[in-house]
Specification:
about 450 residues; alpha/beta; Alkaline Phosphatase, subunit A; 14 helices; globular
C-alpha cells in the first residue's frame, strides 16, 4: 500500500457526527459527506484527544496528548506532520480560518504555502455577543428558566451578517486556486470553521434545512451551517475528480471537537469530556485502500492520523508519536488493539483565550481525563467526582453509574493513573530535551 502520493486533510471545526447521515442512518442534509463515507473507511468511534481546538488540533498535527504539548503554540516544524512531509519532498500547504491556528501561534511553520483567511477584528464583537448570550442561557437554565429562555430566543431575528471567520465557500475557492499551483505530491490541510459558532448560515442553507418538530432553534441553525459546509465540500471533491487528483490522493475528513446544546447544562465546548464534545467524525478515503465502504467500531484517537499518513506514504514514523497507525484497518483485518481511547481536559481556569501563551499547561494542570471504550466512558476527575456511563445504553451520558459499577470504575481508574504517570515521565524528558536545545542555541549565538 505505501506509495508517495497526495494527502488532503480536512478538519471541520465543531462538527458532531450525530448530525451526519452516515453516522445516524437517518435523514440528513449531508449528501457529500455521506457519499464520501460510502467510499471510505468510516470510524464509528473516533475520539478527539481534547474538548476544544487547542486541545485537539496541535495534538493531531504532532500525535501527542495535550499534557505533553501544553499550549497553543507549534514552534518545532520537525515534530509536525507537515514538517515531516516537507522534509521528504511534499509540497506542503494549509488554509486556516481559525485565529488560534494562525502564524501568530506558529502554524505556518512546516508549510511552503500558508494562508490564514482572517476577517476584520470588529466582526469578533458578534462572536463576543454570541458567547455572552450562551453564558446567560446556561446560567438561567441552571435556575430553572430554560423553557422561558428557549421561547425568548426563538423570538430573536436571525442576524443576516457575515460570521467572524472565512466561510466554507471562501476556503473551497482558495483551495481550488491552490490545487492548480501545487506540485505533486502535495500535503494540503484545510480547516473549515463552519459549523462553529456563531451560527450564521446563508439564508439559502436555512431554506434547504427543514426545522424538525420540537427542535431547538440553535440546533436547526447548526444543521443549516452543516448543510452549507457539505455543499462546499461537494464543490471541492467535484474539482478533485475533474482534474484526476482523485486517483492519486488520500483524503482524511474529521473534526477537532463537537458541540454541546444543553445536554449537560451548558453550550459550546467548555473543558468537559462528554461524547458531545470529544466524539468526532473520521473517514479515510484512499485509492490504495482495499477496505473502502467498511465501518470500524473499534474506538480510535485523532492522534492516530499522523502515524497513519506515514504508513500510507511509506515514511518512517518519528519516535515521539503517541498515536497508533490505523493502516491495519485500511488493508486487512487488524490485530487486537488496546480497547480504550484517552482524552484530556485542563482545569477550567485555563479555558478560553485569556490564557493563551501565558502558561504552558503541565500534568498538574489537568482537570479531567477520560477513558472511552465501545461500551463504557469513564471520566476521572482530579479535583471532583468521577463519572461512569454505559455508552451503549446511555449515549447522552445522563445516568452516572459510578456507585453501581465500582469494579469497572476501579479498573479504568487504574488505567488512567498509569497514563498520567507515563505522561509525567515523558513530559519531564521533553522539558529536559527543550532545555538542552535552548542552551545549545544560546551557545551558538554567543560563540
Amino acid at each position: 500500500m505505501p506509495k508517495k502520493h497526495n494527502i488532503l486533510l480536512i478538519i471541520c471545526d465543531a462538527l458532531r457526527p450525530d448530525f451526519l447521515g452516515c453516522y445516524t442512518k437517518a435523514e440528513a442534509n449531508t449528501p457529500t459527506i455521506d457519499n464520501l463515507a460510502e467510499n471510505s473507511v468510516l470510524f464509528q468511534n473516533a475520539i478527539a484527544p481534547g474538548c476544544g481546538t487547542p486541545l485537539s488540533v496541535p495534538e493531531l498535527l504532532t500525535s501527542t496528548y495535550p499534557s505533553i504539548h501544553g499550549d497553543y503554540f507549534l514552534t518545532s516544524p520537525e515534530n509536525k506532520l507537515s514538517g515531516l512531509l516537507q522534509a521528504n519532498g511534499w509540497d506542503t500547504a494549509a488554509i486556516s480560518t481559525n485565529a488560534y491556528l494562525s502564524p501568530i501561534f506558529g502554524y505556518n511553520r512546516g508549510y511552503n504555502h500558508f494562508q490564514y483567511l482572517s476577517k476584520r477584528n470588529e466582526i469578533y464583537l458578534l462572536y463576543y455577543f454570541y458567547r455572552r448570550l450562551i453564558e446567560l442561557k446556561d446560567a438561567l437554565s441552571k435556575k430553572g428558566f430554560s423553557k422561558l429562555l428557549e421561547f425568548l430566543i426563538t423570538l430573536l431575528p436571525l442576524p443576516q451578517v457575515r460570521p467572524p471567520y472565512a466561510s466554507a465557500a471562501e476556503v473551497t475557492k482558495k483551495a481550488i486556486t491552490w490545487l492548480n499551483k501545487l506540485s505533486e505530491p502535495f500535503f494540503l490541510w484545510l480547516h473549515y470553521m463552519d459549523p462553529h459558532g456563531p451560527y450564521v448560515p446563508p439564508l439559502s442553507s436555512l431554506l434547504h434545512t427543514k426545522r424538525k418538530r420540537g427542535e431547538k432553534r440553535w440546533k436547526w441553525i447548526y444543521r443549516a451551517e452543516i448543510q452549507f459546509l457539505d455543499a462546499n465540500l461537494g464543490k471541492l471533491i467535484q474539482y478533485l475528480r475533474s482534474r484526476d487528483f482523485w486517483s492519486n490522493t488520500s483524503l482524511i475528513l474529521t473534526a477537532d471537537h463537537g458541540e454541546e446544546f444543553g445536554e449537560h447544562g451548558f453550550s459550546g465546548h467548555p473543558h468537559e469530556l462528554y461524547d458531545t464534545l470529544i466524539h468526532v467524525p473520521l473517514m479515510i478515503y484512499s485509492p490504495f485502500v482495499k477496505e473502502a465502504g467498511m465501518t470500524i467500531e473499534q474506538p480510535v484517537s485523532l492522534l492516530d492520523i499522523f502515524p497513519t499518513v506515514c504508513d500510507l506514504v511509506g515514511i518512517e514514523k518519528p519516535s515521539h508519536l503517541q498515536g497508533k497507525s490505523l493502516s491495519p484497518f485500511l488493508i486487512e483485518k487488524p490485530k487486537k488493539r488496546d480497547e480504550g481511547v484517552i482524552s484530556e481536559a485542563f482545569k477550567k481556569e485555563y479555558e478560553g483565550s485569556m490564557n493563551v501563551g501565558k502558561h504552558e499547561c503541565t500534568i498538574s494542570d489537568l482537570g479531567k481525563v477520560s477513558y472511552r471504550t465501545k461500551r463504557w466512558k469513564y471520566i476521572y476527575s482530579l479535583n471532583g467526582r468521577d463519572e461512569l456511563y454505559n455508552i451503549k445504553n446511555d449515549p447522552m451520558e445522563q445516568n452516572n453509574l459510578i456507585e453501581e459499577e465500582k469494579a469497572i470504575a476501579r479498573k479504568f481508574r487504574k488505567r488512567l493513573r498509569e497514563h498520567i504517570s507515563k505522561q509525567r515521565t515523558i513530559k519531564r524528558k521533553t522539558l529536559k530535551r527543550k532545555l538542552r536545545k535552548r542552551i545549545s542555541e544560546t551557545r551558538e549565538k554567543i560563540f
